[in-house]
Amino acid sequence: MGNPDIAYPLWPPLTAGCPTTSTDEIAYPVEVDYDYDRVPPGLFEHATGTGLDRWAPLLPPLTAPGLAEGGTPLVEIADGAFVKDEARNPTWSHKDRLNRCTVSAALGAGADGIVVASSGNHGASAAAYATRAGLKCVVLTSAETPPAVTSFLRAYGAVVLTVPPEARWPLLRRIVAETGFHPVSNITTTHTGHAFGPEGYKTIAYEIFTELGVPAAVFAPTGYGELLFGVWKGFAELARLGVAMTTPRMFACEPAAGGPLARSLAEGRPAAEVEVAQTAAYAINSKVSGYRPVAAIRASGGRALLVDDAEMTRAQHDLARAGLWYEISATAGLAGFRQAREQEEFDGPVVCIATSSGFKDIGVGTQRPEPVDPRWDVVRRHLQSSGIAC
Amino acid sequence: MGNPDIAYPLWPPLTAGCPTTSTDEIAYPVEVDYDYDRVPPGLFEHATGTGLDRWAPLLPPLTAPGLAEGGTPLVEIADGAFVKDEARNPTWSHKDRLNRCTVSAALGAGADGIVVASSGNHGASAAAYATRAGLKCVVLTSAETPPAVTSFLRAYGAVVLTVPPEARWPLLRRIVAETGFHPVSNITTTHTGHAFGPEGYKTIAYEIFTELGVPAAVFAPTGYGELLFGVWKGFAELARLGVAMTTPRMFACEPAAGGPLARSLAEGRPAAEVEVAQTAAYAINSKVSGYRPVAAIRASGGRALLVDDAEMTRAQHDLARAGLWYEISATAGLAGFRQAREQEEFDGPVVCIATSSGFKDIGVGTQRPEPVDPRWDVVRRHLQSSGIAC
């Protein structure tokens, strides 16, 4: 996709999109390319190593030390779908796959540190990989960060600066300019992201494939859509390598409060900017879309679905009743699948990516325990009111 | 250990210790035994399946559906030790291994529900496995439960009753008596635990062995000591099966605020009860020890180490700087290893078990973000005061 005739060297990684094709209106992302003929033929049958290292021949150099990220399980749920449980990563979200790669880029580029703008998962994960690699880390966050996430962001020793939301990206660019730190989040107005980031995400496709084959469809919670793009790229590579015969349909699951991917697709534009309303799914409530996920959804025969808070709340509830506790944003994939299956049938397994643990939600840590009188007659009434015979 | 001549059928699982040998002073636990001659010879070379199911021939029947628990990575740290990262489990602690087995016991016993007394991890994990299995769950907890853990305990739909700490065990026994629910935590005065629980923990030994061989020593955070006993049993089985030639030395790492295992060993008694002082390591601050971990430490040539809050705080800090965020109780293993290596050398790899994610600590969710003026001169001063040149 994009223009394959324009090529740049891998180093230093470009972090502001394609310098040739980008316009004032849209920044076009750059993408890591490989010499696919040199990929070891048996990689998908007998790969060795743990975490992302298993897939090193199809990744940029993993110079940053790992935390055994990835290798997350598929868990079957009553909906007849598989949940890809990304809450099982080292910092309990899919962002660890991305940051293993972006922090490797920072190390490879010789930076002393990294800087990231984040409401939670991305920042904490970046901080973890930075400290493990001996790099400093600056996280720009906003006062809307939930209480438990505030502790999480500070846990890994990063410099965490709480600034007004609109100040984050200008400050990010300024810090990059003044310190030489490597940015591991997007620094362009329309979203380009870090070129190495989706390379980490594409290992989700490899893992799904080795466990399940090619699913009929993948449902991904989407903000900018980098996760979706990365997973699509992984499946597209499997087809290109001749390892897989088909590719899955890719479904973006966006909060109905915004929905830049749905807008782009509806208007036939490469990217879009939308107004966003309030939603509990703060982690994926993006104003802007990137170019790549829009192209991926089109190429895969997928769609962008808008899921509202009530749909995500139901999905979150039902996943918890299956023993899987996710933050509400993480449940957009299942909410999207439930919408889609009302309209069409899927001929094969379906995977919903669940991105992150329940500890990251807004309300976590704000509930106070209500003491109960321990006398048996009082306890019995409590149990009976919950449907327990005694 | 114990008296191998006394045997009971597997069903119904005994939950109050050995009815023959227990006295008013001490309850002796019962243990699951196997026909080791029937274990498939190649189990440790080419085991298949995910989670605990991989080890089914050496476990009680896993009737409760799984969540792909276990299979957690070993992560190397600068101390020259490996951390067994149990925060990568389905509910982010080692308790998932135990509860897959105890909830299987409840299902196998035909109970409609389970009941558990817990300050956090055990209760949430039990609730997750119970709801997945279609069982009701009652969690008895206390008002000291930290804020984020309060949300966690309620996430899976259990009936959570906050009662005075001293009321928990009498109420647990009463609920068992009145509802027929199966207890998945200890119901005896000295600790026996659930017979199926350590069977889940022993899979930690199998996983360490397949990745690393037999380590020289294992350091485990210990409250009652069930985790330590389970891991020891796993290694002892490997030796008995002729798969491994040696067994590791087992080190219990107890909060210095209490320390019933150290007391038992010092006094040459099968179990002990101690007074406990305040510690941030609330999750492992036990008054009583069980019989089994004391015997395991002795048999392995290990020791019980008392680690204070300052030592655990340093271990927690250093682990976070290696990219691994654990609750303070979970870092007792590394704190213990650091004590021990001052006194002796270990001839081979050392494993510190880290039991649970940082989200479970007392202070999590209580810190408020402090907004920073986003003007560059202010931000620059912040960065400079953190040692960042700009």
TrEMBL record, chains A, B:
Q: Which Pfam families match?
A: PALP
- GO terms classed as biological process: isoleucine biosynthetic process; L-serine catabolic process; L-threonine catabolic process
Cofactors named for this entry? pyridoxal 5'-phosphate
Name of this protein: Pyridoxal-phosphate dependent enzyme
Transmembrane parts of this sequence: none
- Alphabetized GO MF terms: L-serine ammonia-lyase activity; threonine deaminase activity
Under the heading Gene3D superfamilies, the entry gives: 3.40.50.1100
| Keywords assigned by UniProt, alphabetized | Lyase, Pyridoxal phosphate
Please give the superkingdom of this protein's source. Bacteria
Under PANTHER family, the record lists: L-THREONINE DEHYDRATASE CATABOLIC TDCB, THREONINE DEHYDRATASE, MITOCHONDRIAL-RELATED
Q: Which organism is it from?
A: Saccharopolyspora elongata
Show where the Tryptophan synthase beta chain-like PALP domain sits. Answer: 68-355
